[in-house]
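Example record

The entry below shows one chain as it appears in the dataset: sequence first, then structure tokens.
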Amino acid sequence: MSKKLIDHINNPTDLRKLDVSQLPQLAKELRDFIIDIVSVKEGHLGASLGVVELTIALHYVFDTPNDLLVWDVGHQAYGHKILTERRTKFDTNRQLGGISGFPKRSESVYDTFGVGHSSTSISAALGMAIASQLKGENKHHIAVIGDASIASGMAFEGLNHAGVTDADLLIILNDNAIGIDPSVGALKNYLTAVKEGKNPKQNNMIKSLNIDYSGPIDGHDLEGLIKELERLKKVKGPKFLHIVTTKGKGLQQAEDDQVKYHAPGKFDATTGEIHKKSEEHLPPKFQDVFGLTLVELAKNNPKIIGITPAMPSGSSMKFMMEAFPKRAFDVGIAEQHAVTLSAGMATQGMVVFCNIYSTFLQRAYDQVIHDVALQNLPVIFCLDRAGLVGEDGATHHGVFDLAYLRCIPNMIIYAPKDELELQNILYTASLGLKHPIAIRYPRGRGFIKDSKFQISDFRFEKTEIGKAIKLKKGKKIAVLSTGTIANNVTLALSELENPDEIAHYHFGFVKPLDEKKLHKICDKFATIITVEDGVTTGGFGSAVLEFSAKNDYVNEIFLCGVPDYFIEHGTVDELQQFCNIDVDGLKSLFSGLLEEKEEEED
């Protein structure tokens, strides 16, 4: 029989059978288990290592799943998943058909709320607590939120409401001074002062909101955590426990380099050393093309400003922050603020590049409409991680931007097909536009090998706004693509037996559409195929259909893209294949339509 405690823990009921004295051993085994799996399968590492003791203590003290536990974001929920009936399938984490990398209600009764974007836990747990009151249920409700996430406006909204209720809500602040990148802002400074004992007790902002405050306490002291949680179970009304943890706890490299080990890729489980991948002769990453191009543009234009909400490393805004620290801002997890801050700067003639992941711009939709587009302010939105992003799954796919931005008046929308086009549109936008623009580009590397494209070789060309480009001539069918999915189309066409039958057009501009080109295409080709790496409902293909209907064309138009449901996690290649926008899927579609054409002619 196995001597490892973890091998006999299938659920929290098993956990509660252990003596408190055994829990430190379980904590070590849980850390080792996470490290062993993530080192091979990849995923989010540091955040989960940092809350191992907290995870064990919560499930030991509270009657989960009857008591409701909500994790914020979910990066730190690996230990939670392992202890809640998913240990034996944790090696499928983030893989196609496997368990999700984030808490997900449809996956487990222990996942009380689906999370992937930050700062939702307090509002969700408060909603659960008020509902329990109304139903006469005796339950505890716990929200675990990080110091970076609690700085978001939504978290403050939840705190503001919680303080005027008598809901049974426990908010646990996991304070490790870092999100993905180090935490920023005045709240971070306040929390640091609290931890260092420099903040007077009468100046406690949580108590000022009528919420019972305790802490800060050591988040790695299991006995102390359990004792405090048992005490708080008996305290009525909203409560706030401030714990101090170390992200990456238990793996020295992850403690020393918390940014890199947030999601380190494959690494040696024993030494912690990350397996190096050769980057020689590889195309640059799109995020680096953005970041380094922005620095180059900023050298010659003192009005250029860079803004990102807590993604300086992921977006490569870090290059601008290093080169021009007074002109580049990480505003924390505050997308709404980032957009309106950009708008404010734009009113004063600044050239503002607001870099936000596509999926996170959704959180600032009203600000895009009300504060930017309605006032026609030329903010330059750079939407990183557009399209299918892979293993992070449904919460992170940037597939809705074309649809949700296309309906907004005054917006220009551009999707470059490669890194050179990205450079040139950034240059063009920096020269000054009459409208706001959204530039969307994917996660990962570009397509131009370094022998043809050097990221340091800045020879900019101005991009003509609203102009589509013919990439390939054809006789019978026209394929219209937008963005980097054009590269899949090009490869698929090159593998056809009779590629001369199909023309290919690149519509970088989804708005404004090149209507002059569209008229020519609709007049010449009876069959048109649109291809995009976003949702077909309301996206680029919909725009072509609208144009066709408006102008009384009767062309046969096929829309290829992401279907009308949420796409789960898997590699980008797997997910493109699922959506039939991979090279083989497109090749099959093109071949089938050509065969139909030939049969009609016969």
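Notes for this example: The longest strand covers residues 527-535. The radius of gyration is 26 Å.
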